[in-house]
Amino acid sequence: MVKFFTKTAIGYTHVQTGKICQDFSACYHDDERTIITACDGHGGEIYIRSDKGSKFASEAIINVFKRVEKSVFYRANREEIEKKLRLEILCEWNALVERNLAEKPLTKRETAGLNEDKIFRLKTDPQVAYGTTLNGAMIFGNKMICASLGDGGCFVFKRDKVYPVFDDDSDENVANLTYSMCQTDAFNHLAVKIVDLPAVDGAIVFTDGLINPYRSLDNFATALVKPVVSKLLAGKSEEIDGFITEMGAKIGIGDDVSVGMLLSPEIKPKYYKGK
Where are the domains of the chain? Predict the structure, then answer.
């Protein structure tokens, strides 16, 4: 049986300034598949609908992953499947944004306070208003499919080791700069990877508000990933929920926090005891 968990908590700086939470996480589960997401709307001045952008990113992952059929793994090679999923996720997000814009065009009230350059940019490219990162993973049969764009990340773990699914391929994803779903070249930066499930025990997807306080991958793996796996195996989801809420409200860096975790049915609990 697949175990899974998702949680989003607003950061204390957003509470103090009265800003809406920009993160969004979600999950989907049926007899065939389990999907988790963790997406981070940029929240900068020009990104006036990025809270919706992160929600649409989560919806895009779930909608596309729900359409994946097992037969595809027999009809195409992995590279072809990954490329197809990249395109479908991006198109799905664009469609959700365009539908929202058609129903609710950007208003003068929303753009009040922006300078002329930013207003012109939104008029010529309104999708910028929805800027967001994207991270998600799915367990589907004996496969795990991961997707990522921008900061935050998608890691897999096996016994006492934690590994990034995707290479840290950009200096942009530091210092509050990141790739975005709203970029015209977003397809070039959206990554999808298929992993054989027996090779990993599970996956964790997260926004940068979760990992940044830990400062290193080793610290993140030891202090957060392994204890969360142990608690999820023990059925202590409420404790994880409380910790993530506290990280957003008190002990983190003030940013919104989102996390999703998937555990393979084949995971060996003995490797995570006492973590």
Answer: 3-272
